[in-house]
Amino acid sequence: xxxxxxxxxxxxxxxxxxxxxxxxxxxxxxxxxxxxxxxxxxxxxxxxxxxxxxxxxxxxxxxxxxxxxxxxxxxxxxxxxxxxxxxxxxxxxxxxxxxxxxxxxxxxxxxxxxxxxxxxxxxxxxxxxxxxxxxxxxxxxxxxxxxxxxxxxxxxxxxxxxxxxxxxxx
Length: 170
Hints:
2 domains, membrane
């Protein structure tokens, strides 16, 4: 029988000396990145179920009487969700404000803050923020300086977009 010539697997020392370690290192790093990518792509999104909950809450809150819905959007990502509607109305800011303060209170929302919307020092409208747990409700009023067929106000519910505003009380 003739002896077979088997190549021995080179040791790490030999690979290092021959600079073949770069290929080994590249392979190991690639496998780690692949494993991390697969792990995170298999994780369920938190944003999708929260978006559905926000949509349900949004539909439970009646819009201002006589307001005409202009647009509706519902979006989510892993760590945030947003549901919002845009409305045309002839109501004043005070009428819209009073309606939503009362309507949102009926659904367990608490008034948080009110501020003026400004652009380059010019007042454009007003915004109000309400909280319910970690959810935000925001009303933006642009009725002061808008075109006749533009929406007068927007009403939206969100989670994770502005976590500093509404925090769950422990």
